[in-house]
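To whoever is covering the structure queue this week,

Two jobs came back overnight. Logging them here so there's a record in the thread.

Job A:
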Amino acid sequence: MNRSRTVPVLMYHHVTPAGGDINVTPEHFRDQLAWLRDHGYRSLTCDEFAAHLAGAPVPSRSVLITFDDGYLDNYVHAWPLLREYGFHAVIFLVTSWIGDGPARACAGEAEASLPETPDHAECMRRVAAGNAASIALRWSEVERMRAGGVCEFHSHTHTHTRWDKQDGDKNARMADELAQSRACLARHLGEVSDHLCWPQGYFDDDYVRIALAAGFRHLYTTRAFGRNRPGSDPASIFRFAVRNTSGASVGRRIRVAAHPLFGPVFNAWKRWKRGQRYAG
């Protein structure tokens, strides 16, 4: 077992012409995938990543590509590019947002009638207004993406709610969230995995205990400054956000994250820097 080998986990939300920090344009996403391909990287499945954490060998240049929430633009813009460049991606679904209806057009098909894919702020406004259907995937699109083996789908809870900020018993609410999400995935996909991504990046010891009891084992955080090595805790998976930037820029971040010497130093420095900022 090579315990020094780290698999960086990339965190995306949107691939849309809208651009922005949490929205990567199709042009930049293409450049990022081209960099990965040209430098010999392979994207793992969740099963392969889980096996890596358990000690199984993976290619030295491996990454895990993840998307949070399940936005329509993942289908319209990201999926065609993933297919073109030969990469696999993991999409964590907010299951209550996913609707019914026929699959819409994606890039490369009926370009004149591609559906609107707004930026993150507008997506959140529509979700708050009860109009998630206009910005989220449909089950027919999930099935289309899944059928080709390019994308796999896992839980991001049922409603994406920060129950710790609401009245009532947050632990009971989270247990219900996870039960509803699992039931929804089982009903629509015929299966549910042990991979879970925390809503809005929040979790605590209670939530981890509840998730493990619900059948989840691999828990994905928004914590960027750590290493996903063989033997590391599957209940604390580190991911870093990919920005709307060039492939070379993302490549530098990947190389730092995976480096057995520079990676730990970089992570320690960033954690110290963040601690100083909060202390101030």
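Job B:
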Amino acid sequence: MTATTDRGQVTVGSISDLTPGEGRTYAIDGAQIAVFLLADGTVRAMDAVCPHKAGPLADGQIDSSVVTCPLHQYAFRFDTGACTADTVGPVRVYPAHVADGAVIVQL
């Protein structure tokens, strides 16, 4: 389920579709975006593909500040998208929040 508003906000689905501590990939306007539900109940969103070797970031290990790509263990910050290793470029991050049980991503 995706629905875009006039402000560029996309409802990707229900918060109940997400598992705390894990990510899920959504196709939004031709882009693959990974959405993560953190242990504190907040959601984060970023490009779903690692720029190093196209690893699936939604399948990576997460903590409160980074997701680690499952292929080669490059970690990307939820706040900036920067890789913690200087050898790999950043991913794009998107503002995300929950409203009335729906996960909303700002494109």
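Note for Job B: The chain has no helices and eleven strands.

Please reply-all if you pick these up so we don't duplicate work.
Q.
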